[in-house]
Amino acid sequence: MDHFLSASLLTDALLGLALLLLWRVQPDNRSALYWGLGQLSLGGTTLLHFLPVSVPAQYALLHQLGQLLGLLCGSLLYVQGSLAFIGRPLHWRGPLLFTLVAGMGLLVGMEYSPTLAGGVGLLLLGGSLLWSGWLLMSGNHSYRLVGLLLALRGLLNLAFALALDLAQTPPLLHLLAFLAKAACLLGLIYLVLVEARQRFPNAVRFLADGIWIHDEQGRILQANPACAKLFGHPLPSALEGRTVQDFLPFVDEVSLSKLFVLLQQEESAFPLTYEHQLKDPSGLSFPLQVKLSPYWQGGRLLALAQLKDISARKRQQALLERAANVDEVTGLASRHALTRHLHAWLQEEPDRPFALLFLDLDHFKRVNDTLGHLLGDLLLQVSGRRLQQLMPGEAFLARFGGDEFVIRLPVAAGESAQAAGLALGQQITEAFRQPFELDTQHVVVTLSMGLVCYPEQARDPAILLRHADTAMYAAKRAGRNQLCLFDVCLEQAVQDSLLLDGALRQALAGQEFSLVYQPILLAEAGALCKVEALIRWHSPSLGWVAPDRFIPVAEESGLIVPLGQWVLQEACRQLAQWRQDYPAACGLRMSVNVAAWQLAAGGCRFCCRRAGGPECQRPVAGGTGAGADRTYPDRRGSHHRAQPRRLTPAGRQGGAGRFWHRLLLLELPEPHPPGYPQDGPLLHRRAGDQPPLPGSGAAHHRHGPQSGVAAGG
Q1: DSSP for 596-642?
Q2: HSE, side-chain direction, 13 A CA sphere, residue 230
Q3: 487-500: per-residue pLDDT in tens?
Q4: CB atoms closer than 10 angstroms to residue 35
Q5: How far apart are CA 46 and CA 8, in angstroms?
Q6: Which of 68, 429, 650, 709 has a 20 to 30 A CA-CA distance from 698?
């Protein structure tokens, strides 16, 4: 017995410590910790039970309590270790409560029958070992052998419990218990080691990316099924033991040594990513992405490689690249591609001149509105194809957006970019004289073009495009279907228009406008018959601004309507004031220029009534616009109204600089008072008469606006 006892205690100590060391190496493996502590607890119980010396009476209770705690703790820790190993959740409250109650019962039982209490304790241990063995056998089929050993050990402990007296049990039973315990502990150590070794394969087994681990010589140590499939092998074992060079031809000894130098450097940005072209088993080439990270195993540095076929990603990138660089309607280069092309060109050949043409289809919106957007897209397609047929060898054509196209036309050194651009523009104009066939529809479209030359007029791509766009809009204002060469004056006009637009909005709120009155005299008598109200603008920052500068800007920005309303209100108010202050002026008439936009907006009569003046009754032919209403003299020499036509903004033609001519001259009459002569001069300057009317010599009368601010001409 002494030899068996010594061997048993030594086995408990060594194998229990071995389990604790395994836990120390792998702190997340709690099953090794519980099993190791449980076995050491049971070994301590055995040691206390078979002490060779008698225990003093005063320490007998502590001696019994130590045996009891060792037995119960060992039983509890074995069960918890098995639960942790198979991944079951741990519940400490119930087992601890049971252990506490059982321990108190056994402690009380030892006072009456120590032998019976020891047998009950062995029954608890045997039951715990049987339960632990059943847990292992139910967790995984590969754990069944160790589970059977644990169950056998539990049965032997039950046999010892039934024998009641351990000293009287046969030596063969002790030998079997020792062998079962040693085999069980070795089996538990084996489980911990196998679990640690299989942790990596289990983690990467079902990954879609190929994973392998290789050493500094390139020998593959471990691989997953996805990696084997990537190289046309059914099992990972076909890769293990072979070298990386067998599968990746671009890898050599030099690259491997450089790789491990990088893996040892902490400042390296992991993972290290590389892309190479590789051939699959069928011979087709595909892009392979390799990501490398350091992997330490037993103090040895290895390389963990993640291999992935990125063909799908490359196809997706190609689709996105095409969507970004190719226009989906015309198939030409997109605006993004044009910008990239210009930047790349200026970096590669910064001294080579070229011409940049900005093209816009005239009245393209009419095609969309009348024929529909499908035919509008078809028109863009056939226009793009017709332009493409005219492109010289190195010319670059792109759809800028909407119905706009851009052409970059390079020329040889010493040649004139302007001459080449004008020649190409003439060819395009001639080509677009031919109609397009759009689903049985014959459509003729023209192009307005702007031309800018590099490097004379700009060197930055954004500025080049802006200048070409400015020139194109100048061609539209000049009548369309022509090419306009960029000039600094165009840019200054655009800037001036922008400056005036902002200043006009402030002027409406700042009461910066005033009216001057041009007298109109009867040629025969030289008498004043009416006056014409003309608007003037004095800006604190710009000074006096001529009407031919700010009226076109007001037309384009829509400010002409509130500006014209103010002119009508102020003119009516002034006319009413004159008639009140000067009785002889009761028949005076006033002419006011009204823009077509203002008539289209309506409200002239209401505006006159609100100002306290007469109604707007007689539009006369005072402007040159196509929409000006005409009046016809009757037999008495007076005027009657023609049937008015509604003027719309679509009636405006020509450049912005001529908008201010397209006005109507509205007369603001008053019915003649009784006894007032129908003909003859309205006012006569005689001695003793009242002072002449203000404005009889182009008088200037300044007033602030009453409801907004105005513009007229």
Answers
A1: HHHHHH--HHHHHHHHTS----EEES-S-STT---EEE-TTS-EEEP
A2: 27
A3: 877 777 777 777 77
A4: 31
A5: 9
A6: 709
Which single residue is written with the structure tokens 């060079």? 245
Among 188, 179, 180, 94, CA closest to 132:
188
Exposure string of 79-113, with b = 16+ CB inside 10 Å and e = fewer, is bbbbbbbeeeeeeeeebeeebeebbeebeebbeee
Strands (E), 472-626: 483-485, 513-521, 528-539, 543-545, 589-595, 618-620
Is the pLDDT at 606 greater than 60? The verdict is no
User: For residues 367 and 672, which has the higher predicted lDDT (pLDDT)?
Assistant: 367
Cβ atoms of residues 362 and 447 within 8 Å: yes
Query: 487: Cβ–Cβ under 8 A, 6 or more apart, which residues?
Result: 471
C-alpha torsion sign, points 592, 595, 596, 599: negative
Give the confidence band of 582 by pLDDT, cuts at 50, 70, 90: confident
Q: Return the pLDDT at 164.
A: 55
- pTM of full prediction above 0.85: no
Give all strands (DSSP E) within 202-253, no chain letters. Answer: 210-214, 220-223
pLDDT value for 78: 84
Say if residues 571 and 511 touch (Cβ distance below 8 Å): no
Q: Return d(Cα 139, Cα 88) in angstroms, integer.
A: 9
Q: Encoding tokens for residue 378? A: 């078809």
Predicted local distance difference test score (pLDDT) of residue 52: 52
3-state secondary structure of 390: coil
3-state DSSP assignment of residue 664: strand
Q: Tokens for 143, please give them.
A: 């754990």
Beta-bridge partner residues of 286 = 278
- Looking at residue 216, what DSSP letter applies? T
pLDDT level of residue 510 (50, 70, 90 thresholds): confident
Closest CA to 48 of 34, 62, 35: 62
The CA distance from 450 to 437, in Å, is: 27
What is the Cα–Cα distance from 713 to 470, expressed in whole angstroms? 27
**Nearest of 317, 405, 393, 394 to residue 357 by alpha carbon:** 405
Both tokens of 92, joined, read: 């400490």
Cα separation of 338 and 467, whole Å?
Answer: 16
Q: Cis peptide before 234, with omega less than 30 degrees from 0? A: no
Structure tokens at 290: 């390799």
> Rounded to 5 degrees, what are φ and ψ at 654?
85, 180
Token pair belonging to 452: 């800018």
